[in-house]
Design goal:
heterotrimer; A alpha+beta (193); B alpha+beta (143); C mainly alpha (204); B: alpha+beta; four-stranded antiparallel sheet; C: 204 residues; mainly alpha; Arc Repressor Mutant, subunit A; 2 domains; elongated
Chain lengths: 193, 143, 204
C-alpha cells in the first residue's frame, strides 16, 4: 500500500532539505515507488536550476573590476561644514610642517575655533584658564595628521585625521569626522593591502 | 635692618615654607575613555565630554570610562599610562608657572605639549579600539 | 585565513576604509547577481548593487552584529531592488499573493517538459536563448517579494532560516512563498513549452 502522493508544497520543502527526518524518510519511501512524484520533484527542481543557470550566465558578462572603487567614490561625503573647517587647518599645517601648528585660524562656526599656537606665547597663556595646546606633531611617517580643536568651555581636543599624502588606516574616525582633503588634489584612494 | 639681614630672614622664610626645596609637581586626573557608535550609554561625568565633542563636530553615541587614575607628575620624571589598545602614553611635567602647568605627552604617533590651568581638559585621540576610539583625558586634579 | 565578516564590519565602523573595501569585494559578485535577477537590466543592476553597499556603509553604525552581516546585506539589497522595481511602475505588489489554482493546473501540466530542457550538464551557462527570455518573462510576472525569495534561494542557496531573517518573515511564510514562486514559474514555462499561444509573443 503506497502512501498518498505528497503535495507539491511538501515536495518543495523537501527539495530544500527543510523537512523533518521523519517526513523525509516517508517522502523518500514514497518517491522510490512513485515515478509521477519523482517527475514532479524533478520539475520543481528544474525551475531553480534554470533560474540559476540563466541569471549566473548573464552575471558572468559583467566586469566588476572597478566596482569597489566606484562604491567608495559614492560614499556619502561627511558633513561639509566640518570638512571645510578641517581643510583650512590642514592647509595651515601642511605649509608649516612638521611639528608646529602656526597661526591662528578663527572659523565662524559655533563652539569651534582652531587654535594653533606658536611657542613663546607663554605670557598671555598663563592668564587664561582652560587647557591650551602649545605644540603638536606626529611621527615623520605617520599616516595621520593632528588637528587641534578648542571647545567652548576651554577644553582642547587633539584629533587625528588621515594624512592626505599617505592615506591608510583612518585611526578610529567616526563617520562624522571627515578625512581632510586638500582642495587642489584628487581624493586619495584607500590604501591597498 | 641691613640688606644681609633681610635676605637671611627671607631665605629662612623661604626654606620654612618649602617653596625652594620642593621640585615642581602637578596632580592630574588621567582617564581613558572609549567612544563609539555601538550602544548609546554615556557614563556619569562624561556627558560634558560628549557635548563638547559633538559641538566640535565629533559625534559618537557612547562614551565609556575604562580607567581613571590620579597621577602626580614630578618635573622631569615621565609617567606611563598603558592603554587597552596596546599603546603607552608618556606624560612628563615640563614646567609649572603660577597656576598653570606645561605637560608633554607622547602617545605615538602623536607628541604634544599642552598647558593645563585651573580647569579645562586635554583630550587626545589614542587610536581605534573595539569598534570605537580611545581617548586619553587629562584634567587638573581638584577640578 | 581570510578575516571574518564581523571583524571587517567592526573595523569599517571605526573608519577603516580598507576593511570596508574588502567587504565590498567579498560580496560584490553575489549582490550584483541577485540584483540582476531582480531588475533584469545589467546597468541598473550595477547601480542597484552599488547603492546597496553605499547604504550598508551609511548604516554600519546601526548594524547590531547579532544577525549575520550576510543576511543584513541581502536585506538591504532586496529592499533597494524592490524600491527600484516599484518606481518603475506596474508594481506587482498588489497581485494576488497566493494563486491557489496553481496546484491544479500543474496536475495537468506538461510534466517532464522543463527538466528535459536543461542540458545534460545543468551548470553550463547557455540555455536556449528563447527559453531564457521566457524565463525572464516568467520572473517578471512574479510579485517582487516572490521573485526575491526565489532568487535568494536559488542563487545563494539560502536556508529557510536565513531567508526568514533576510526578508523578516516567519519560516512558514518562507516555505509558502518559495513554493508559490516556483510553481508559478514552472506553470508559465510549462505552458510555453507545451506550445500554448502567447499573446505577447513576437517573431524574432
Amino acid at each position: 500500500m503506497t502512501a498518498p502522493c505528497p503535495s507539491l508544497r511538501e515536495l518543495s520543502a523537501y527539495l530544500d532539505g527543510e523537512v523533518s527526518p521523519g517526513v523525509r524518510a516517508a517522502l523518500e519511501a514514497h518517491l522510490s515507488a512513485c515515478s509521477g512524484c519523482r517527475t514532479r520533484l524533478t520539475e520543481l527542481g528544474a525551475v531553480g536550476a534554470m533560474v540559476r543557470a540563466h541569471v549566473e550566465a548573464r552575471a558572468e558578462r559583467a566586469d566588476l573590476s572597478g566596482f569597489a572603487a566606484r562604491v567608495l567614490a559614492r560614499l556619502e561625503p561627511y558633513r561639509p561644514s566640518f570638512s571645510e573647517r578641517l581643510r583650512v587647518s590642514w592647509e595651515e599645517w601642511r605649509t608649516h610642517r612638521p611639528g608646529l601648528l602656526v597661526g591662528a585660524v578663527g572659523l565662524a562656526t559655533a563652539g569651534l575655533a582652531l587654535l594653533l599656537l606658536v611657542p613663546g606665547q607663554a605670557a598671555d597663556v598663563s592668564e587664561r584658564s582652560g587647557a591650551m595646546v602649545r605644540s603638536v606633531s606626529t611621527d615623520e611617517q605617520a599616516h595621520v595628521a593632528p588637528v587641534v580643536l578648542k571647545t567652548e568651555n576651554g577644553d582642547a581636543i587633539i584629533w587625528l585625521v588621515d594624512h592626505p599624502d599617505r592615506p591608510s588606516l583612518s585611526i578610529g574616525n567616526d563617520a562624522s569626522v571627515p578625512e581632510v582633503t586638500p582642495p587642489s588634489q584628487p581624493r586619495p584612494k584607500a590604501g591597498e593591502l | 635692618m641691613t640688606a644681609a639681614a633681610r635676605s637671611a630672614i627671607l631665605g629662612s622664610l623661604l626654606l620654612a615654607s618649602g617653596a625652594v626645596a620642593q621640585p615642581a609637581a602637578v596632580s592630574l586626573v588621567v582617564e581613558v575613555v572609549q567612544a563609539s557608535n555601538e550602544g548609546t550609554g554615556v557614563d556619569a561625568g562624561l556627558e560634558r565630554m560628549r557635548e563638547q565633542f559633538a559641538k566640535s563636530g565629533i559625534t559618537y553615541r557612547s562614551y565609556h570610562r575604562l580607567s581613571r587614575d590620579q597621577l602626580k607628575l614630578a618635573q622631569g620624571k615621565p609617567s606611563e599610562v598603558k592603554l587597552p589598545n596596546g599603546k603607552t602614553g608618556t606624560l612628563t611635567l615640563v614646567s609649572v608657572k603660577g597656576s598653570t602647568a606645561q605637560v608633554s605627552v607622547s602617545l605615538p604617533p602623536l607628541q604634544t605639549v599642552a598647558t593645563l590651568g585651573h580647569e579645562g581638559s586635554v583630550y587626545l585621540q589614542a587610536g581605534p579600539h573595539a569598534g570605537g576610539v580611545l581617548i586619553l583625558v587629562l584634567t587638573p586634579a581638584g577640578t | 585565513m581570510p578575516t571574518d565578516d564581523l571583524t571587517l564590519v567592526r573595523r569599517a565602523r571605526s573608519g577603516d576604509q580598507r576593511a570596508f573595501r574588502l567587504l565590498v569585494e567579498r560580496y560584490q559578485k553575489k549582490v550584483y547577481t541577485v540584483a540582476l535577477g531582480m531588475v533584469k537590466d545589467p546597468e541598473e543592476a550595477l547601480d542597484v548593487a552599488q547603492e546597496a553597499f553605499v547604504k550598508v556603509h551609511r548604516y554600519l553604525g546601526h548594524f547590531k552584529g547579532d544577525s549575520s552581516f550576510y543576511t543584513w546585506l541581502y536585506r538591504i539589497t532586496t529592499n533597494v531592488c524592490i524600491d527600484v522595481l516599484r518606481r518603475r511602475g506596474g508594481s506587482r505588489a498588489d497581485a494576488v499573493e497566493y494563486d491557489d489554482s496553481v496546484e491544479l493546473d500543474l496536475a495537468e501540466a506538461n510534466l517532464g517538459a522543463l527538466s528535459s530542457q536543461l542540458d545534460t550538464d545543468p551548470s553550463r551557462a547557455a540555455l536556449r536563448r528563447e527559453l531564457g527570455d521566457k524565463l525572464e518573462e516568467a520572473l517578471a510576472q512574479l510579485p517582487e517579494k516572490h521573485r526575491a525569495i526565489l532568487l535568494l534561494r536559488e542563487l545563494e542557496g539560502m536556508s529557510y532560516e536565513d531567508l526568514a531573517r533576510t526578508l523578516d518573515i516567519p519560516k512558514g511564510t518562507v516555505m509558502s512563498r518559495l513554493f508559490h514562486a516556483r510553481a508559478k514559474v514552472q506553470r508559465l514555462l510549462s505552458g510555453y513549452l507545451a506550445g500554448e499561444p502567447d499573446p505577447r509573443k513576437e517573431r524574432k
